[in-house]
């Protein structure tokens, strides 16, 4: 382990980390919803109701939230390096 990984381990509340976690959870929920809505189409079962398809839109939303968290974390690290 290097010094940078030790400092990140000691500071779990770094800017953007919470957004990345929330984005990952939203992405996973959207992925499960996508599988659940597409699977009946392949198996010849009845379609799920329309609101189930709207839950699938959580997947790109989660990706966008996680990406925003990564950008926030990168900006924070850039500011820390510039301040040194």
Oligomer: single chain
Q: Alpha-carbon distance between the termini?
A: 22 Å
Based on secondary structure, the structural category is mainly alpha
The poorly predicted ranges are: none
Helical coverage, percent range: over 70%
The tally of helices reads 4
Radius of gyration: 18 Å
Mean pLDDT: 87
Overall body shape: rod-shaped
H-E string = HHHH
Strand-residue proportion: under 5%
Largest sheet at a glance? none
Total count of strands: 0
Structural account:
With 84 residues, the protein is mostly helical. Helix content is 80%, strand content 0%. It has helices at 3-10, 17-43, 50-55, 58-83. The two termini are 22 Å apart.
Summarize the structure.
This protein is mainly α. 80% of the residues lie in helices and 0% in strands.
Describe the structure using short key phrases:
84 residues; mainly alpha; 4 helices; 80% helix; rod-shaped
Topology:
Elements lengths: L2 H8 L6 H27 L6 H6 L2 H26 L1
